[in-house]
Amino acid sequence: MAIKQFPSTKKITSFHPPQRTLLGPGPTEIHPRVLTTMSQPAIGYLDPVFVEMMEELKALLRYVYQTENALTFPVSGPGSVGMEYCFVNMVAPGDKVIVARNGVFGGRMIENVERCGGTAVVVDDEWGKPVDPHKVEDAFKKHPDARILAFVHAETSTGAESDAKVLTQIAHKHDALVIVDAVTSLGGSPVLVDDWKIDAIYSASQKCLSCTPGLSPVSFSQRVVESVQQRKDKIKSWFMDMNLLLGYWGNTTRTYHHTAPTNGLFGLHEALLLIKEEGLENCWARHRRHHVALKAGLQAMGLKFLVEEKYQLPQMNAVLCPAGVDEGAVRKSLLNEFNIEIGAGLGPLKGKIWRIGLMGYSCRPDNVMLCLSALGSILMDMGLPIKVGEAEAAAHQAYSSLHAAEARKKIAAA
Ligand SMILES: *Cc1c(COP(=O)(O)O)cnc(C)c1O
């Protein structure tokens, strides 16, 4: 019998991706230490050595989430799976959930509530604005039977940050739990699970944690764990059923549930260790510092931000595309001429903004300078009145001011 040769498979050789500068909404560039760790030999997912690593991984996740929650572990799958994990375990048929929507990901939460058989009460805010706590308060007054409030802490589609602490307080005042999307915030800006009393939260490995995609760290408070355990109905997903997953990730047992993505988990362990070594606060400060420098450069080019300053996320910069400029053509030139990837606008912001991410290992001064220089030269070629080097000079100036302020603080503290 002749082996079938599919014409399209004849020319296939090993795949070698180009070296890109990743400044989009994730994935990010990956630290060489994480990549090296991931190419280590395969190991069984119940090997005692691996099990020991799992415990460290959980401890590191508790550190980045700033929580004592026993149930803190990475679900196998991208951030979307972490989102589904929270909803499918916490939302029973007939439950009423208030969902705040100020971008793409709030919309996905509504979809999740409905697929779990719940009713979503939607609180809409304009894209680019944070979630308005007053509107959430009003929604609770109109729907006192709402059991859960779900919102996105850092809306990646717009670059706006909402006040997770205040929103959680409102939910608790009305005896409801919160589900928080921290996919883009975790590691890039403060996420204080215990301090803010967040009930359930999820994130993803490829944003500010700067690992490969495919893992979604989640954390449930004891109150949530108990409420899921008390459910009388069967959780609608076998794979994401918290009770079954705990058989593998829990503290007491280690039995087969699914084959954990071992090498990916080595990578996440290393990526979290890098954050631990840097120090969580220093990591947040680094994201802020490079955001300030990038912003100074972009503003020197005459570019404006979508989001009002006090709600701007350092790790996700939504920049308005100037009138008359072909947004897509700029991104194409950045990729083809400079190997730089930035993000496009989504939904109502399509064609109107660029999304420049400074996340995790991608958040470095060389990337800030490269981005300003490349974007500046492309816009200049398109006829915008930009002078060579002005954006870079403004960014350098911003770095100097920050360094000087830092030095003054040190002297004052000494
Ligand atoms: C990226 C992102 C997600 C989805 O994560 P995936 O890993 O792409 O599935 C969810 N919420 C927010 C806020 C995100 O930025």
Features:
Aspartate Aminotransferase, domain 1; Aspartate Aminotransferase, domain 2; single chain; 414 residues; seven-stranded mixed sheet; binds pyridoxal-5'-phosphate; alpha/beta; 2 domains; four-stranded mixed sheet
Architecture of the largest domain, according to CATH? 3-Layer(aba) Sandwich
CATH topology of the largest domain: Aspartate Aminotransferase, domain 2
Looking at CATH, the homologous superfamily of the largest domain is Type I PLP-dependent aspartate aminotransferase-like (Major domain)
Task: Tally the structural domains.
Answer: 2
> How do the helices and strands follow one another from N- to C-terminus?
EHHEHEHEHEEEHEEEHHHHEHEEHH
* Structural class determined from secondary elements: alpha/beta
Described by strand count, sense and barrel closure, the largest sheet is:
7 strands, mixed
| Share of helical residues | 40-55%
Give unreliable regions as ranges: none
Q: What strand order characterises the main sheet?
A: 2-10-9-8-5-3-4
Task: Report the portion of residues in β strands.
Answer: 5-15%
Q: Helix count?
A: 13
- Shape descriptor: globular
**Which distinct ligands sit in these coordinates?**
pyridoxal-5'-phosphate
